[in-house]
């Protein structure tokens, strides 16, 4: 059976599907053909409703956007919400109020896909229109539970308005193609599209899509494909625009940040040096995940960048396992000694650096000896940030066909590693320190503001409005497993890094001085406005 990604994919413009007659069949069927008027079918692949519904004008409805997964997916969700709002749709945080649910999925682990599938079912039970996006439908668009649903591919998010328009009218459409220029695959949709940031103080920039690896457990590769990087000048311009809209923190993200530029003749350090020129005093840049093979080539340069006062001393380097035999089965293209070399080098030259890593428990073929090597690695480095994942076989991946570790063994190893991780406290020795922190978020319980120090360690501070978006000084007086608490220093300078007033929550990036209330009454960008839609329908005799 062919893999989902190898099968024929319907696109929104496709007038012929794999189910249509072949030219040979049509030739010998002409005698039975009866001429009839041709119906207009532009942008329509499939009619979902059995009866035509009352006339609706797309762009006047409420849309709920739900995103699962990584920061790259979060950025895609922000872009889709922004374009819909700019086109007249109202973005709501209440799913019950919404006319349509836009569900942006993650395919990394089974639980994330389960949540996604359950949300589709829930929406259908409530008679909501549904559009799906993200890595799940891109990688496996013919999955049964996606039948008759409209799909936005991961490189087609700039056409979300078209897809939602048709879904609102009851049509099922699918956009799954790749973006290319002169035959070369691009990083994705334009970076200057309208956007609604979940946090108006933080801009998430995807520097590339896809990767150069072929990890045997990874389903994301099926969706995001091979490496495709954005040009440096486009990324710098996006950062510049974001700072002009009042943000004070940038997150760089991708499936593998360290591989950036290899497809376009540049590299990550070259990009970072250009970006730091644009960062205002007090604002900060956070690097995304990088796999060991690519960071090894730039260790000296990365040290200098991580020492920069406007770059967090933080790096996410997934190890996945400390066993070389397991890494080989995973096709990770490095050995544990490579990972140790990266960490030792960075810790020696960037004192205090925070290293985050990932570990998979119970990968096929993992023995007790293999797992013990991973436990020993954690004992040695005592990672302050550790993402522990029980292995889940993803459909269509080589690892799913390997001999599996028994479920109870996987659970036990996950439990043992989690216990080890929670046995040490990484921040106790910092009680009494005075730190400068950048305040950007609300805490999960809404009792504090969340700030981060130079090493991207989480510091909770009093929830005073004058601190939000500011760089302040605090004295650390308490420490937990994942955080510290800081008491603001009296009479200390409160510094504002933003060079402009931040956008309001829910306001669309790229559309200066326009609020969501204005968007329903006037055209504000290249997206078709509600009034434009009405005129167009009237001219075609549809009203």
Automatic annotation (TrEMBL):
It is found in: Endoplasmic reticulum membrane; Membrane. Binds 1 or 2 [4Fe-4S] cluster. One cluster is coordinated with 3 cysteines and an exchangeable S-adenosyl-L-methionine. Its EC number is 2.8.4.5. The keyword Hydrolase does not apply. It comes from the Eukaryota. Residues 197-428 form the Radical SAM core domain. Keywords: 4Fe-4S, Endoplasmic reticulum, Iron, Iron-sulfur, Membrane, Metal-binding, S-adenosyl-L-methionine, Transferase, Transmembrane, Transmembrane helix, tRNA processing. Residues 428-490 form the TRAM domain. It is a single-pass membrane protein. Residues 61-169 form the MTTase N-terminal domain. InterPro entries: Elp3/MiaA/NifB-like_rSAM, Methylthiotransferase, Methylthiotransferase_CS, Methylthiotransferase_N, Methylthiotransferase_N_sf, MiaB-like_arc_euk, rSAM, rSAM_horseshoe. GO terms for molecular function: 4 iron, 4 sulfur cluster binding; metal ion binding; tRNA (N(6)-L-threonylcarbamoyladenosine(37)-C(2))-methylthiotransferase activity. The keyword Metal-binding applies. SMART domains: Elp3. It is an enzyme of class 2 (transferase). Its cofactor is [4Fe-4S] cluster. It catalyses: N(6)-L-threonylcarbamoyladenosine(37) in tRNA + (sulfur carrier)-SH + AH2 + 2 S-adenosyl-L-methionine = 2-methylsulfanyl-N(6)-L-threonylcarbamoyladenosine(37) in tRNA + (sulfur carrier)-H + 5'-deoxyadenosine + L-methionine + A + S-adenosyl-L-homocysteine + 2 H(+). Belongs to the methylthiotransferase family. CDKAL1 subfamily. Catalyzes the methylthiolation of N6-threonylcarbamoyladenosine (t(6)A), leading to the formation of 2-methylthio-N6-threonylcarbamoyladenosine (ms(2)t(6)A) at position 37 in tRNAs that read codons beginning with adenine. This is tRNA-t(6)A37 methylthiotransferase. It comes from Sinocyclocheilus rhinocerous. The gene is LOC107722243.
